[in-house]
Amino acid sequence: MAMDPDAVAKAFVEHYYRTFDTNRAALVGLYQDTSMLTFEGQKFQGPAAIAGKLGSLPFQHCEHQIVTVDCQPSGPQGGMLVFVSGSIRTGPEEHPIKFSQAFHLLPAGGSFYVQNDMFRLNYG
């Protein structure tokens, strides 16, 4: 059965941001030793470093609003490129800030892990 990349991307994005908003530490399971995160220009490699960065962000509560999810199949091993745009709000009184995030997903035993993750806030 051929997988539908759009359906996989949508399911991944829903899972990722729901987990981010409710239990950030659990995101560690989506990364492997070769995984890289570039967060606002800072680079982190491996699950511990990536989870450490995400866990150290200076807000407890946050809520992602996803506006677009684009995806493309990527490479001979069945990976996927997923590009997300939306906004993030870190408190009830806070204005939402627009963001963009790109994921390169690679298959691993029936699911996917995040090989590359790039995140930028879009001020202005």
TrEMBL record:
Pfam families: NTF2. Coiled coil: none annotated. GO terms for cellular component: cytoplasm; nuclear pore central transport channel. It comes from the Eukaryota. This is NTF2 domain-containing protein. Its main location: cytoplasm. It is found in: Cytoplasm; Nucleus. PANTHER family: NUCLEAR TRANSPORT FACTOR 2 (PTHR12612). Residues 8-121 form the NTF2 domain.
